[in-house]
Amino acid sequence: PRLFLIAVSAVALRPRLWGISMTTAWRMATNRWWRRAPFLPLPDDKFLQFRLVTMYGGNGTPEPERIATDLVAWLDWCRTWRSTSS
What we know:
single chain; mainly alpha; 64% helix; 0% strand; globular
């Protein structure tokens, strides 16, 4: 939940990232997410932990500001890559 709030806060102020963030969140959501609380299309905890460890090393827990900065940079890259591939 904390990571979700950090992600929403980082993206909320950047309308250019709203579309790609929704697309990306939808693609990463677990199957049948609507059957389990918190009833949000969130990625599986194990998948998310794996991604954080591979990105940040150690136990995958960097400071929240770094997650927000990295998330915005990654979503910008996704948006740019998507526009160049069409």
